[in-house]
Structure formats: structure tokens, C-alpha cells
Amino acid sequence: MALRRLILFVAVLMAALMVPALIPQNRPTMTLEVEGRGRIVIEMYPDKAPQTVGHIQGLVRRGFYDGQRFFRVITEPRPYLIQTGDPASRTQAMDSANMGSGGSGARVPYEDSGLPNDTGYVGLSTLPRDRDSGDSQFYILLGPSRFLDGQYTVFGRVTQGMDVVRSIQLGDRITSIR
Q1: Do the Cβ atoms of 118 and 141 come closer than 8 Å?
Q2: For the CA atoms of 98, 106, 155, 68, what is the dihedral angle to 10 degrees?
Q3: Per-residue pLDDT for 1 more than 70?
Q4: Count of domains observed in the chain
Q5: Residue 43 main-chain phi, psi, to 5 deg
Q6: pTM of the entire predicted model
Q7: Sign, CA torsion 40/43/48/52
Q8: Could you read off the pLDDT of 70-112 as tens digits, one per residue?
Q9: CATH code at 37?
Q10: Does any domain span residue 22?
Q11: Are 30 and 56 in contact (CB under 8 A)?
């Protein structure tokens, strides 16, 4: 009888400890409407990358991304990434020498979120060899890219619309992000 109570107690204790892991986190999202393609919903992780998520949320609230285009789409030799966040993409040609060098003017330092650079994850782009130079540009990964771990702040993950992400073409326009 005592052994049965002990087993029951241990089972109840283990179940109680697992409950928080089963309760979904109420995380902020950003929803991208892409002209002619559809909707992408990105769940963000402010508990893992607070400065980055706060900065991106501020830009979204200001309408910073509205009308911008995806200026980098790398699908060959294997699916890699799509990238947006340069305000010059609204007006400049996608093959402009300056494309991909603009931003909001802020500088967001690297945060080790512990999240992987894997399919559907979202990271803050930076200047080459300066992981503390993040600003407004971000990428969405089309395939596993774990070699990027430790170089870029991963702050989100696509939860809806990965089919839309895979359909993005160079120059596709974001009508709005909310």
C-alpha cells in the first residue's frame, strides 16, 4: 500500500512539473502580408532576444517595413534564405550596388537566444564580421543553416505561411506588417 502511494505521488509530481511545458507561451507575433503571395505569421521570442524583438516591434509599429521588398532570395544550389528590411528596396532596383546596405539607423547588439538557424527561423541580419551591427534587416531560413549559429540573433519562427515563404521571389513587396 505504501509503495502504491509513493508511485502515485511521484506520478502526480512528475505530471505537475510537466504542465508548464505543455501550456502554450503567449508570444507576440508579426504578420506579413506579401503582395500576390499571402500571409506569413512569425512568432517572436522576447524572453530569448529582448532587445532585438523590442527593436523590430518598434519598427513594425511605425510602419517601417510597409512597401519594402525582398531584396535577397537565395534558393540555389539549395534553399537558403529570403531577406528584407532595407528601406531602399521600395524605390531602388534589386540589382543596385547599394541594395542591402540600408536600415533604420539603429544598432542592435548580438543576443545569444539559443534558438537554431533552422528552417522557418528568423534572424537579424548584420554587417559582415560584426554580429553587433543588427538593425532592421532580417532573414527567414528556407532550410537548415546551423553554420550560422552564434553569428546572428535568431528572434523568431514562422508559425503560419511557410508555403508563402517558399514562394517568395526577388522583388516581392510587403504590403504591411502588423
Answers
A1: yes
A2: -40
A3: no
A4: 1
A5: -85, 130
A6: 0.86
A7: positive
A8: 999 999 999 999 999 999 999 999 999 999 999 999 999 999 9
A9: 2.40.100.10
A10: no
A11: yes
Cell output for 10: 511521484
The backbone torsions φ and ψ at residue 3, rounded to the nearest 5 degrees and listed phi first, read -65, -40
User: What's the rounded Cα separation, in Å, for the pair 26 and 23?
Assistant: 9
CB neighbours of residue 94 within 10 Å: 14
Residue 46 covered by a domain: yes
CA distances from 102 to 12, 36, 60, 140 (A): 55, 25, 16, 18
Place of cell 535577397: 72
Residue 17 lies in a domain: no
Residue 34 is classified by DSSP as E
Reported as a single tens digit per residue, the pLDDT across 3-60 is: 566 565 555 545 555 544 454 568 999 999 999 999 999 999 999 999 999 999 999 9
Q: Distance (Å, rounded) from C-alpha 110 to C-alpha 134?
A: 7
